[in-house]
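Key idea: predict the complex, not the pieces.
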Amino acid sequence: MSSIPTDNEVILGILNNSESVLKRLYLAYFPMVLQLIINNNGNEDEAKDIYQEAIIILYNKIKAGDFELSSKLKTYIYSVCRRLWLKRLNQMNRYGGDIRDFQEYLTVDDETEKNNDRDIQFNKMGNALQLLGEPCKTIIEDFYIHNKSMQDICESFGYTNADNAKTQKYKCLQRLKKLFFQQK
Amino acid sequence: MSESQWLEVVERYLNGEMSGDELARFELLRAENAEVNNRVLEHRHFTGLIKQYGERLDLEKRLDDLHKEIDIHALKEELTIHPIWIVKLWRNHHSKISVAASIAIFAVLFTLFVTGYLTNRESKYEFLGLKIKQLESKVNRLNPHPVNTSNPGNYQGTGFAISSNGYIVTGYHVIRNADSVYVQNAEGKSFRAKIIYTEPQTDIAILEITDTSFVNLSPLPYDIKKTDGDIGENLFTLGYPRDVMVLGAGYLTASTGINSDNTSDSTTYQVSIPVNHGNSGGPLFDNKGNLIGIINARETHVEGAHFAVKSSFLLKAIQDIPSDSLKKTLNINSKNVLAGLNRVDQIKKLQNYVFMVKVYNQ
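Result:
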């Protein structure tokens, strides 16, 4: 099970939500990225961050159906990680102007920029949910993320009346929107 | 309809829970009322974002779980590019190494200081210098300098007599630039001489011994040959390449010499006789003791070849001497008494007529 998956296996696996393919993908290319980061002024935690960001980019691209395999998957992942790491080094002023490479790479500016916008939105959402507090946070998460029914929510929170729960949910959602849009 | 009820309607619509009449009415409302439509779109977008956010969190959690299965430490060891051992040694221990080196340097300096190596050097040299001076003065007392040493001359060549009353022939290049010229005979006696005639083109110079201590020689035993010698003839010369007279023997190898521009020089012969600079101006005799040329031992550009001025040019030069330069009569000897003698006896007779020419200049 730990063999390197073929590129087509990865695409089909992710589209079919295969946990085992994701695992094989993850295990297959992490050493390559770790090598890149730790030999270019980084540590293993930074390697993990960068690698997971790249896997998420790949995952979303496949899920969105606009992933075309124009090069080897390995090269694609390496290139995205390289780009992300250069950006990170620049932000930390650790970039010496030179990077030690271990693989061929492509130019992948677009991919990382798009992902950056989405990350900002998600960050805002995360902050807004934290500020929302309980029980609103759990109600929102249960309903909108975990797709629980209002009936279930009613029971788990001990609401006597489904309407009360609905009203509560509405209020929570309004507050969440407010918190979300207040952020810059 | 309250806001919360309105929300429920929108959500039922977006979740596809409406059907029949209700769905048709709502879609009509959406189509007619832009504000309703916007609120629907906005809600869909926002709840979509919540959903995606949830999915992202979920994905991150899954990746974190996968990450825990990797042995990061071992992998890191394996993938780090390790610097070579000496760099590592320096990075890990440079402070210790520096301290050790400093201690070593101080120890060496301290030892040198204590053993007096640094302070006593100079006095030892002074002591040695003093010793040397003492020795020098002792040597000087034992070996007093001679009051005046005879100057050996700046340049030395050979010459030979062409008359018994003190006319000497030598090479022009021997006496060129001379301030004064002395000739010295086989017994070591020196006589002052004067240049009376030179012919640079044939390298001939004629001197007259002016020294009052000079007594006339006995009549010359050799004559000056008027005709050219033949190739292959045995020849010999006497000269002063050193402080004593040296015999050189060989043979005539070509009827002409070579100029510096590689053209034939008809005033000279090419000879094969070992000669040195000091032989220049020396007489060249054939087997019978006839003078057939004057050695010209200047450096040549032909390996192993030397040249001698033909005797016919010497005769011509003698005739060309202006008569007012001649204080005494210059009679050319035409009698050869050496023809029947062997080489040893020939040389015994000749040696008094061959002189060392000493040239002095500033």
